[in-house]
Here is the input.
Amino acid sequence: MIGRAARWAGALALAVAALVPSAPAAGADGDGSALVVLGDSFAANGFRWEADAKECLRGETSWPNQLSRLTGTANTPDFVDRSCSGAAIESDRGYSLVRETLDADRAGGFGPRTRMVAIQFGLNDDWGVEHRATLWTSLIPCVFNLADGCDRDAAAAGRITDFRAVTGPAYAARIGDVVRYLRYYAPNARIVLVGYPELFPSGQDSVCLNILGAGAFVQPRGGGLIEYLDRIDAAQRAAAAQLGIDFLDTRALTAGHGLCSAAPWLNGVLDPRADPVGLPFHPSAHGDAVLAAALHERYGR
Here is the structure.
């Protein structure tokens, strides 16, 4: 039986084969856009409570939008943002890295003038082979489950995505075809794998989420979630090195400003210290501004 990864790679190979003989889509002047972003909700940072996985949402204060303003590409053909809340590297239902890449190419995003392609993916994926869990489907049965907890044994029980399968080579295998695709169509671009911000300090066992800025929900047995976040970070670093692309250490940029810190740069639930109506667990406008400024300082000048 052909596995999901093999089917995904095969689909991309067919897409590349179909596109390579044809002329690239027309961008700003037929040579691509300066800035292209592909990503999940940590990039798109837009939401509606009633939205489903097939709807692509983006927020005005997302780091791609803030970066486009810093680089002077906002509201021009030189900026193509195809990030979508709910997207994953591999997705059976919603937006995937492959789909976003092909959508960006159809919009004229890739060409010799493309200076940067930023990619932020991984947290929404199913990394196991038995339970098919993702982080977001694990919130109720694991993170908010005070009875059973979300310890490191939760992966084996299927209450959280199997972080044991998250490795640098596995991550590189999932994004490798897209990286080669980008090198073909945007040969002069810096490809930047953008890490995730610090939700919780590494190495601890408890996790929490601030509610109304007045108190916190605390899961004292949250080591499984911490382990997953740590492994995603390590896998991204290793994959970037293996594929020869850049890695932006967003966790270092946001250290000390996680969900239950004194000065959070991520949103809790209606927490006035961040964005009161912002997407929980995701960066506030200020957190996204920090990331946009770092990308601009390193790559956008």
Summary: DSSP finds ten helices and seven strands in the chain. The CA atoms of residues 138 and 160 lie 5 Å apart.
